Amino acid sequence: MATRSFPYVTLDVFTGTRFGGNPLAVFTAAEGLSDAEMQSLAAEMNYSETTFVLPPSDPANTARVRIFHRTAEMPFAGHPNVGTGYVLAGLRPEAGDVLRFEEIAGLVEIRIARDAEGRPTGAEIDAPQPLQILGTLPAEAIAPCIGLTPADLVTTTHIPTRASVGVDFTLVEVAADALSRALPDIAIYRRVAEEHLGAGDRLSIFLYARDGNRIRARMFSPLSGTWEDPATGSANATLAALLLSILGGDEARFEVTQGVEMGRPSDLRLRAWRTAEGIRASVGGSCVPVLRGAATL
User: Fold this and answer.
1) How far apart are CA 17 and CA 235, in angstroms?
2) Quick one: which of 192, 189, 173 has its CA closest to 243?
3) Nearest to residue 14, comparing CAs of 260, 284, 237?
4) Average pLDDT along the chain, 297 residues, taken 10 residues at a time
5) Residue 224 confidence (pLDDT)
């Protein structure tokens, strides 16, 4: 059988400093890869997500983008879209400053940020779906999943809430001094996922401490292979939408720092706004290229 070669690049997303932020691998020409090969490559790269760029179904769009984490495909994710948009803006200058990616969760719009010389520096993306509130979970169940007690959780704004703007997260506000003490217990995670969600492989808990419009955050998803994530764009966008729904107003903006405890500090800019179809949200940040290569199969 003839060997096949597939180029890829890696980059750090939501940072202006190499080896900060959230790493991402982008296979820039994925035609010919099977589903199983994409999944195997994502597991081999061992990042929180890897993207595969394919021709769009509609030529009016820029690309079809498939996103895989270590064990499964995702309908949408934040940092993969920001990073893939940044990469394609560099490879395809004719695509302009607004890219559109076809994904399982819907069409994702990416707006490219550039420096004074016109070089891409990062991107902002709109989540593909309006805010959906999927339910709540008891503080008594969630707290031990992350090595905390119910007293460490802040429930005055909302109790632990499952929500989505394209992918499902459980959003949990905690006291500022509890954030650094959080530590997942995978056995409790699995039990809570089975008892409350009916599935043992998907429970992503996004913790945050808020001081006005400044937020510090962490995200754990050990059942799907991500013990901790240094920057979770989709969860942050979901949080912005949820807070706007609770706090009121027509628009809200937040600045988030995540990944500090991992030694990969990340900076994310969030915006949420009201529309006729519901609350929408965006997330943006900077990117830094790291590696370039090819996978031979």
Assistant:
1) 22
2) 173
3) 284
4) 92 96 97 98 96 97 96 94 97 94 96 96 96 96 96 97 95 97 94 81 90 97 91 96 97 98 97 97 98 96
5) 84
| Residue 49 annotated to the active site | yes
- Smallest Cα–Cα separation from 174: which of 191, 159, 190? 159
Classify residue 9 by its DSSP letter: E
Contacts of 182 (CB under 8 A, 6+ apart): 146, 147, 148, 174, 207, 218, 220
The two three-digit tokens of residue 114, written as one number: 């550039």
Residue with tokens 């979970």: 137
Residue 202: per-residue pLDDT: 74
Structure token digits, residue 278: 């519901």
Three-state SS at 79: helix
Among candidate residues 49, 124, 173, 228, the one labeled active-site is: 49
Phi and psi (nearest 5°) for 25?
-110, 135
Residue 168 tokens, joined: 């499902």
Distances (CA, A) of 245 to 104, 208, 242: 25, 17, 5
